[in-house]
Amino acid sequence: MGTLEKENENLLYIRSRSKGEIKMERLAIVVPCYNEEEVFENTAERLTERLSALVQKNKISPDSYILFVDDGSTDNTWQLMMAEYKKNYRVQVLGLAGNAGQQNALLAGFACVVNQCEIAVSLDADLQDDLGVLEKMIDKRHQGADVVYGVRNDRRSDTVFKRVSAHMFYLLMKMLGTKTVSHHAEYRLMSSEVLRELMRYDERNIFVRGIIPLMGFRSEVVYYARKHRTAGRSKYSLGKMISTAFEAITSFSIRPLSMIMLMGAAIALCALVGLVVLIVCTVCGMPISEGKYILASVWLLGGMQLTATGVVGEYAGRTYFETKRRPRYRVRQLLRHDEDSRDSYKIQEADTNGRQP
Ligand code: UDP
Ligand code: MG
Predict the structure, then answer these.
(1) How many angstroms is it from 201 CA to the middle of ligand 2?
(2) Same domain? 142 vs 207
(3) Suppose 342 and one of 61, 89, 94, 161 were both cysteines; which one would form an S-S bond, judging by CB atoms 3.0 to 4.6 Å apart?
């Protein structure tokens, strides 16, 4: 009898502290990986240990698993995933063709697990997010939460630049009226109901952590200190960070448009006042160097117009992409352990639109 069968004999129901009997739920941990060969084996080992410990404690059902999503890595990540899959029955792997970006890799993972679990936790491959709070997340779930956000309350491990830029980003998101949870990245528990709801958001320009709070599910927060990467380097260059922040802002708020409009109105008002002053001065016979004044205002207004046109163009461009309804990613391969014989593995064909294979 295999380990899984033995574990299957465990009780399928546990007694919750607050409620009567609750079902032990099947957990899927979704981990997007892009060129993570340095950390992959250690991550797989530590996640498997953690999962087994939770199963032993009857916190989750014995058929819980980890889904690694390869986001078009160009190093050995995929080969390492295959090797792990073959020896570890708790591991499933999904390979995307090409680098679709972390958000899309996560969505591909969620689409894959939505009907194969009751709860899912998303997590970065570098284990910067404390695995120790996973159990707390599950406890909160047992107490009735549909979403549990992992929030970093200590970012000392980050560089000064990363810390400052993160603070600025969350401040800006607040000012723009979006409902993001500050200092929460992608470490999050969600029930399958939340996942199903998330699948209904079919937009291309998507920022998952902005959408979840919008849905209005019962949510809780757990706090942890962000750690250093176990190995390897961050996959977010300055350019990628700026483009993610820009994506987040434009996919959630049209307030920049109203701000530009207000700015334009304020400038027009100032110009009007200036004109009146000029006329009054001329009437009173004062000498005025109009040339400089006009030149400066032409530059200023020209700049403002360009900015405004640029912002409008960004929104128009995004609308254009949304109307195309392009698939977000293409699934290359999905490996799931066969339900009947867990030692063998089979390759399932998945469709190209990231829908449930
Ligand atoms: N990642 C991804 N696709 C990308 C970039 C990153 O799947 O195009 C994954 C990466 O492998 C990691 C997670 O997203 O698991 C977070 O990336 P990283 O640790 O580099 O970000 P940081 O912690 O520096 O913000
Ligand atoms: Mg990281």
Answers:
(1) 26
(2) yes
(3) 89
Same domain, 263 and 244: no
Domain count, the chain: 2
Distance, CA of 38 to CA of 73 (rounded, Å): 12
Element (H, E) at 239: helix 238-252
Q: How far is the CA of 128 from the centre of ligand 2 (A)?
A: 6
Ligand 1 atom closest to residue 233's alpha carbon, by position in its atom list = 20
Q: Which domain holds residue 261?
A: 255-324
Ligand nearest, relative to CA of residue 39: 1
Residue 63: other Cβ atoms inside 10 A? 20
Per the DSSP assignment, residues forming a β-bridge with 85 are none
Nearest CA to ligand 1 atom 1: 102
Digit-by-digit pLDDT tens for the chain (357 residues) are 444 444 444 444 444 444 455 678 999 999 999 999 999 999 999 999 999 999 999 999 999 999 999 999 999 999 999 999 999 999 999 999 999 999 999 999 999 999 999 999 999 999 999 999 999 999 999 999 999 999 988 777 788 888 888 888 888 888 877 788 888 989 999 999 999 999 988 887 788 888 899 888 999 999 999 888 888 888 888 888 888 888 888 877 777 877 777 887 788 788 778 777 878 888 888 887 777 678 677 777 888 887 888 888 888 878 877 887 777 888 888 888 865 434 333 334 333 344 333
* Residue 271 shares a structural domain with residue 295: yes
Q: Are residues 233 and 153 in the same domain?
A: yes
Given ligand 1 and candidates 102, 184, 187, 241, which is best to mutate, with the most ligand atoms within 8 Å of its CB? 102
Question: How many angstroms separate the CA atoms of 138 and 142, rounded?
Answer: 6
**Do 295 and 233 sit in the same domain of this protein?**
no
Instruction: Tell me if 188 sits within 8 A of 134, measured CB to CB.
Output: no
Q: Which domain CATH number covers 203? A: 3.90.550.10
Q: Say whether both 229 and 286 belong to one domain.
A: no
Q: Are residues 73 and 180 in the same domain?
A: yes
Ligand 1 atom closest to Cα of 128?
A: 23
Q: State the virtual CA torsion across 43, 44, 50, 52 in degrees, nearest 10.
A: -170
Does 209 lie in the same domain as 305?
no
| Ligand 1 atom 16, closest CA | 124
